[in-house]
Amino acid sequence: MRPADFLLLFACCVAWGFNLPLTRWLVGDIPPIFLAGLRFLGLAILLSPFLRPFPKQFGLVFAIAMCIGGVHFALLFLGLQAAPASAVAIVGQLGLPIVTILSIMFLNEKVRWRRTLGMTLAFAGVIAILYQPGKFSFEIGLVYVAASAFVGATGSILMKRLDPIPALNLQAWVGLLSIIPLFGLSFVLETN
Q1: Angle in degrees, CA 131, 132, 137, rounded to 5
Q2: Which of 51, 61, 124, 156 is the most buried (most CB within 10 A)?
Q3: Is residue 36 within 8 Å of residue 184, measured between CB atoms?
Q4: Distance in Å from the first CA to the final CA of the chain
């Protein structure tokens, strides 16, 4: 890998690393579902030039948008409101073993011992985070994050059923289709 590519990759990782702490700070002042709606409004505006062509498999694109967009981020931001960002970052990693399990179940993928070991370690890590001596802690925020990971993993499986579509076209539609459900849920469920 060229040094310039490595630096770009590193910069992306650092920027993404600020994502959870920044969102954790923002949900202290902004209702989480409303904040998720704002996030997707920004995405839809930014990627609006990529809304063409209209997706052929619109129903599937809508389901994907709800899974990797609206529902995933609503649950994630609710979790960030109620749990520390560091714990959210760890529990959020459940998406990787969950998508692997779903791919075995629905896509007939085969998993070797290394991936099985990795999944086992990921689940064990989450249990270690939740465990407190003398009791098992199920903080509601971390339950939201685990549900978010499951919904996001489901969206990843649905994407495998999608005919080839440009990535920016799909992301533009995810942004657009997530706005109304998120703002609608925010209006019904949140105050301020």
Answers
A1: 65
A2: 61
A3: no
A4: 48
φ/ψ of 135, rounded to 5, equals -160, 165
What is the DSSP secondary-structure string of 13-52? HHHHHTHHHHHHHHTTTS-HHHHHHHHHHHHHHHTGGG-P
Q: Which two tokens stand for residue 97?
A: 């073993």
Burial of 27: CB neighbours in 10 Å, binned 0-12, 13-18, 19+ = buried
Separation CA 52–CA 168 (nearest Å): 10
Q: What is the pLDDT of residues 2-40, one digit of tens each?
A: 999 999 999 998 988 888 889 989 998 999 999 999 999
Q: 151 near 72, Cβ under 8 Å?
A: yes
> What predicted TM-score, i.e. pTM, was given to this entire model?
0.87
pLDDT in tens, 124-176: 887 777 776 766 667 889 899 999 999 999 999 999 999 999 999 999 999 99
- List the structure tokens of 67: 């899974």
